[in-house]
């Protein structure tokens, strides 16, 4: 009876997951293969004639291949931001976990505030303008680091708590300096949580819409999410090209998530129980 109940629960869960996640993706794929007239009806039906390749070419070549520039900009922002986040948050999490003090306690409060408070857009724009980083890739990368540093640091700190302090002491007895202890002893052990952090932050930063919209205006600074504006207007929306654009923007993060979902779960739960 228990096995039957578990099997029934599993089937129901899979069906609900299919309805919530798979069906919307299928709907996007269907609209991306239709003509402009058919797609405007937003019907869940097969197209009379598949125009998938034609829509793909139209989206890629729109506005002098702006989508390719957007993929380059988004990839550049993502790679540099995530690389900085991994190094900085791992170092901060290590210090906060291994050296508790009044300073680290205050840092903990600031991290919690960073997780809870919404971004202050107008003051941030003013700050970027005052230091000459508004509308620049450097400014956008610094914004992404600032927005995501709290979560990454909490993730690393929880994982470092599971690493025995005896390793630090043994390395210190052998004459290793604090920097060597972190980079040669601790950092190699952070691989599970590092993979999780890289995947989670890469998807979040790559898919960020409001950040580039506020802090990175300009035709040459377009990112993948902002290209969705190309096929929308107040008078006529090209739904077939819009959905094709959505499909192209969604595929890279989806592939990353499919291949690394186990690592994400392992890294997120590794620090749940202190060893």
TrEMBL record:
CDD domains: TM_PBP2. Part of the ABC transporter complex UgpBAEC involved in sn-glycerol-3-phosphate (G3P) import. Probably responsible for the translocation of the substrate across the membrane. InterPro entries: MetI-like (IPR000515), MetI-like_sf (IPR035906). The lineage of its organism: Bacteria, Pseudomonadati, Pseudomonadota, Alphaproteobacteria, Hyphomicrobiales. Residues 71-260 form the ABC transmembrane type-1 domain. GO terms for cellular component: plasma membrane. This is sn-glycerol-3-phosphate transport system permease protein UgpE. It is a multi-pass membrane protein.
């Amino acid at each position: 009876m228990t096995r039957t109940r578990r099997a029934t629960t599993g089937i129901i869960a899979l069906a609900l997951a299919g309805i919530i996640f798979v069906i919307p993706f299928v709907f996007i794929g269907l609209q991306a293969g239709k003509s402009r007239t058919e797609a405007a009806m937003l019907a869940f039906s097969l197209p009379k004639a598949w125009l998938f390749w034609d829509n793909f070419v139209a989206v890629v070549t729109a506005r002098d291949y702006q989508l390719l520039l957007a993929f380059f900009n988004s990839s550049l922002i993502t790679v540099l931001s995530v690389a900085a986040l991994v190094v900085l948050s791992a170092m901060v999490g290590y210090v906060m976990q291994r050296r508790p003090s009044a300073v680290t306690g205050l840092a903990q409060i600031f991290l919690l505030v960073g997780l809870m408070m919404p971004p202050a857009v107008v003051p941030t724009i003013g700050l970027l303008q005052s230091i000459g980083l508004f509308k620049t890739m450097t400014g956008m990368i610094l914004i992404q680091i600032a927005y995501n540093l709290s979560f990454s640091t909490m993730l690393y700190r929880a994982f470092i708590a599971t690493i025995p302090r005896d390793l630090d002491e043994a390395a210190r007895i052998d004459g290793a300096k604090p920097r060597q202890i972190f980079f040669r002893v601790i950092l190699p052990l952070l691989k599970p949580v590092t993979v999780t952090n890289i995947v989670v932050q890469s998807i979040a930063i790559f898919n960020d819409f409001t950040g580039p919209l506020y802090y990175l205006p300009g035709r040459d600074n377009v990112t993948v999410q902002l290209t969705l504006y190309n096929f929308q207007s107040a008078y006529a929306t090209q739904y077939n090209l819009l959905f094709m654009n959505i499909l192209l923007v969604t595929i890279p993060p989806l592939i990353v998530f499919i291949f690394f979902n186990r690592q994400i779960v392992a890294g997120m739960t590794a620090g749940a129980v202190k060893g």
